[in-house]
Design brief:
InterPro entries: GAF (IPR003018), GAF-like_dom_sf (IPR029016), Phosphatase_reg/MetRdx (IPR051330). One of its GO terms (cellular component) is cytosol. Belongs to the free Met sulfoxide reductase family. It is built from two helices and three strands, in the order αβββα. With about 100 residues, it is an alpha+beta fold. It has a single domain, classed as 2-Layer Sandwich (Beta-Lactamase). Strands 1-2-3 form a three-stranded antiparallel beta sheet, sandwiched between helices.
Length: about 100
Amino acid sequence: MEQVACQTISFSRGVCGRAARTAETQIVDDVHSDVSHVACDSSTKSEIVVPILFNGEVVGVIDIDCEEEKGFTEEDREALERIAVLLAAGCNWASLG
């Protein structure tokens, strides 16, 4: 069953927050071994979070969970980082401020 995000997560919490703070993609092969992981779905075993940057600032993240450990590869990282660049270029982020 597909789940949507369970909550808004501040930059100080979770893997999403870590990606936002560092402006770097985070791949967590085993979310149960990452103390900062915020569980939204108990079936999640791995996670990838890619920051979306606009004018050098993080304006959002792409957060994908997987029901398998080590569910994400470097190819996944590269593809999602390209998508993040497209989102940054294609959205009107300036209107959010």
